[in-house]
Every structure is written in structure tokens, then in C-alpha cells.
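for ur thesis appendix - diguanylate cyclase. copy paste whatever u need, i formatted it the way the template wanted (i think)
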Amino acid sequence: MTPPRFGSRSARHAKWGAALLLLVTLALLAVDLSTSYRQLETEAGRQASGLSQLLAERLSSGIHEAGLILQSSNQIPEIQRLLRSGTLEPGARQNLTQKLLQLLQLAPYLSRVEIVDTACQTVFSSKLDGTPRPHHNEFCRWLHRIDPKESNYTTVIHSPTDGGIVLANKLYDGEGNLIGMATGLIKHNFIQDEVSRLTVGEHGEILVLDQRQLTVTRWPQTNGNDPQSYRPLQPREILSHDPGQMLFDAPSSFDGRERLYSMRQTGNYPFQVAVGLSRRDFTRYVWDKAWLAIPGWLFLSALTLLALRKHLSNLHQHQQLLQGNERIRASEEQARLILDTAPLALLLVNPQTIRIRHANSPAREMLGLPPRDPEQAADNELNLPLKLQPVEQWLREGEDALQQEVELELEDKSRLWAIASLRRLGHDSQPSALIALYDISGRKLLEQQLHESNQQLAEMAVTDPLTRLYNRRHADMVLRDEISRCERYGQTMAIAVFDIDHFKRFNDQYGHQAGDDVLVAVANALRDTTRNTDINARIGGEEFMVIFPYTRLRDAQKVMSRLQIALTHTTFPFVEQRITFSGGVTDWRPGDNPALMMSRADKLLYDAKQSGRNVVLSDQEEA
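the 3d part is after this line
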């Protein structure tokens, strides 16, 4: 029996090897594309979830701020007189219009404020030339509903011309009797300014829905369409469902395009925010990668077939073997040339000895290695120790890294941030590891500067720029939280409201700069006489407020007396008179809300002014 020829057996093995190589590379390509697609889908889900959370918080904050503005209208005397008597003289009506316009300036997205009496009739509107808008029956029913906890109400009006989110707040007179309500309208386009700063892709979509899943507003805007004509979102596949958020695939109710949606409830308000990212946007990279990879695989297949044909035709020829060795050497030289001309810092390191075999010019400059000698042989190795943490530790522990952000420590103990990749090349006779480094120290510095700027902006949002005390908005939020704490745990709490006596006359006599100096001096004295846990705020021109958590009324009164003494001993080189103030101090009582506590403190302040100024009255003194 004649044994099979060696060449035939080698040819058969070469054919099977070539087919296996092409199948394996095709499988790896498919796995890589699938992995990239899943990674992009997961990242898109996180992005949609983050955007929906951000928009839900902003929408909740905006509605809450609009509610506070409507609530503050209860303190306007003209509104009280209008709702009690039904009419106002022209001068008072003009003053009321100006005050409502000032309230609207605090919330640009609030388009109008209307005052409604107990008969559910609009008696005043901030729109001078507008027709009063009729109110739904649900507002009338809510207005006369006897529930002290329901002091505000929120609903949606679906109308192409005058629709949006409608807020309402009950109004009471000084004796606690219901005299009407204040309503405000947030137009459909209120969310456009918010989403203009967000990135949802070219085909993304943002929706605000009511409890019936009807569209309140949408980005991008749709012209001439009734929001009620669109169907609710119908999830085809729910990817995740948390208590506060649901992530799902669904076709859009507006254009029918498939999107990845993140739907989230807007706090305690009857709205939901849905952020949809189009798969056409976040999978574009995968398709581009596929269009580049498939021709590359075809090119690799062509090269493999050509190499196979060449190998079969020259299997027994020694000269072809020499030519193959020459091609391998040429390939090594080409790889070394690519390594030297790459813009990244690239290193070839022996993972066993942790010594550098080759480094291109960016790597030499980054690590402080000696520059390459042009007369040096191309295959001459550096053979220098690698002093670079934590890359040196990765090599010792046999770890690989792919585009990992890391802070590097150089041999001279200096540090820099870089994106590092480490891949072992796996050669038995001469093991090597390829290290790629990209310097991102400049980007890290910019990120740090951006973080510091954001902290400064956050501090400016709650601080009065002149006195460096808290502003009115922050004080109102703290007062509301402290009242909630008192209601929950039965603790004590007091507030003091005071203003500087004859401050306007002082400004007129000495100038506004001197007035600013006095305000700063009062703020400094206030810091010196109060605790670190007390909240000091400037709530008006010369008006201040102090919130005393866990403090009894008489202790708060003592603090205000110390503040009077401190200001009595404060002198100014340009002022002949002493600085005095008048104020009122009150404590929390069961059933109190911020408006009631502020009303009592303001009344005590007014009584102190009538008593001759430089007086601080408390509820104990009234009793």
C-alpha cells in the first residue's frame, strides 16, 4: 500500500486551515459587532435614563417654583381687597398689574396669572389685553373642597392655542376664610429652552405626558397637530422597570419611528417625562463599523486564498521558502515603521524582564527616554527598564488593559493622566507586550476647572451677592423643610424677621455705597451672634430673616437682643448715628405653614415699627 504523499497531506491541511481562519475571523467580526451594538444600547439606555431624570427634576422644580409664586400672591393687599369687595380703584388695579408682572418675571415660563373668586369667575388677569379664560368644572369643585392639605392643584388643558399646565392655589383672608384662588398657565412650549441644551440625537424625541398618557408637550415641536390625536406609547419590549422609571422599546405616537424610551414620573405631580433615543442615532457607529469591516474581511479572504494558492504551488520549493522569510522580514520592518510613525506613545516591552525593547518618538518624549540615534541599526533594542506605574504592575500580574483612564507615575515621581492599553503579542521565542499611551492631562485639568466652576455656580444660586448670606429663595426652602421636620418629630423651631430702621433716609443722606457697607456690617454681626446651625438670610432690601432650628422662642429672643447690643457698639467713620433695627420673633405651632409663620413675624415687625423702632417683639410679649 502506497503511503500518501507528504505534499498532498500538507495541501489538504492548508485548505482546512484557510477555511477555518476565514470562518473564525467572520465569527469574531460578528461577535465584535454584536458586542458593540449591546454596549451602545446599554449606554443609550443609561443616557436616556439620565436625561429623563434631569428633565423630571427640572420640570418638578419649575412647577414647584411656579406654585410658590402663586402662593406668594396671597400676600398682595390688592388681591385681598379685590376678592373681598369685588372691585378695585384704577390706581390699585394698576399696582396689582405691576405686582403680578413682577411675579411673572421670576418664572419666564409662567405665561399668565389670574385671580378667581369663590364663584369661579375670573376677576383679574395679568394679561392686559387678553380675554379671561373660562375655568373647568374640576377647578370649581376643587376650590370648594374642604381639605386643608389641598391648598394647590395642578392639571392640564389640551388646546392648540391656549393649552398647557394649569396651576391653582387657594387664597385666604387674614382670618383664614377662603376668598378665591390664583391660577397660572405654563404654555406648551415651556420645555423647549430646557431640551435645547440636551443631546438626544438627530432623531430623538422628548415627551411630557399627563395621567391619561396624553401629550402635554413634545420636542421637537409639531405644528398644527392636536396632542389628543396621538395614541399613548405602546411598549414592544420592556428592558427594565424600576419603581421610578421604565425603559422600553416602542414606536413613536407622532412619527411611528422605533425608539428606546425612558419614562419617569415627575415627583408628586401628575406628569411623566419620556425621553426617546432613535436607534438610527446610537447604532450608526455599528453600521459604519460593519461597512468598513466587511470589505476588510473580503480583502482578508482574498489575501488568504492568494497565500494558499501560493503555498500550494511552491510547497516543495526551497526558493519559495526563502522568499517567504524575506516577506516576513519585510513585514517586521513595516510594522516597526508603523510603530515609529504612529501619533500615540507606543512601547514594545518584554513582559518577563519588564524591559523596553522599542519605543517610538512620542513614547521617548513622554517617558524621558534618550532620543533615537539616526545612525543606530533599526533592529537594535533599547533594553531599558520600564519605570511606569501602574503599567509595570499590570505586566507583573499578567493583566491586559484596553483604553483605561489611569494616572501614571514616571521614574522621576511626576504624574500625568493618560488613556492606556496593554496587549500581549504572545511570541514563544521572544515574548512581547504592546503598550499604547495617550496623554489626557490637559483634558483632566479642564474637567477639574469645570467642576470648580459648577461648585461656584451652585453657591451663587443660594447666596446674596452683597452680604454673602442666604437669599430669599433658599430661606423659603429651608423654612419649609424645618416645618416638615417639626411636624414629623415634634421639635421646636423659631424664626425672626427684622429690618434696619430708617434705612431709606440713611441711603438718601450718605449714599448707596454707605448703605451697602451697613448691610454688610449687619450681616457680619448676624454671623457673630448666631450659631453655625442657624440660617441667616437677606430676604429684601434691608430686611433679614433668621431661622433657629431646635430653638425655643425665648432663646431666639435672647439672640436677637445680643444682635441689638452688638450693633449698638458698632461704629462707622462716616455715620454719626447708631444702626438699629426692629423685628419680630415667633415659633412653630402645630398646623403652621411657612406663610402663617411669616405672616405672624411680619405683623410683629410692623408692631415693633409702630412702637418706636429699635424694638424686637415676640409672641410671648404679645400674650
